[in-house]
Amino acid sequence: MVTYEREVRGIPLWLLREYLVAEGGEVDADGRIAGAGWTAQLTQLEDYQIGSLRVGQVRVEIEGEAGPMAELEQVMEKKLIRGGG
Which of 7, 27, 65, 72 could form a disulfide with 37 if both were Cys (CB 3.0 to 4.6 A apart)? Predict the structure, then answer.
């Protein structure tokens, strides 16, 4: 099993969920997203704050088989690239 964990700032939970669904995932009754060879859990965290600036953040945890995880990680990294950091 391979695990991918990351805290993502500036992208809402619903959009991250849609990214995973677009890659073949289906949302379970408990909110987990399961795809072919992988399972993901998204958790809304407290806003990240610097001074008066507040940005939402989400913890992304994905576990799965090495092959499907390598493909999914590559796709997710491209989708998570945002201008400005």
Answer: 65
Matching residue, tokens 């009754």? 29
Tens-binned pLDDT, residue by residue, of the chain (85 aa): 999 999 999 899 999 999 999 999 999 999 999 999 999 999 999 999 999 999 999 999 999 999 999 999 999 888 888 655 4
User: Which residue has 């990351």 as its token pair?
Assistant: 6
Q: Say what the pTM is.
A: 0.87
Tokens 């491209």 -> residue? 78
Pairing outcome for strands 38-50 and 53-64: antiparallel
Is 51 in a helix, a strand, or coil? coil
Count of structural domains within the chain = 1
In a domain, 85, yes or no: no
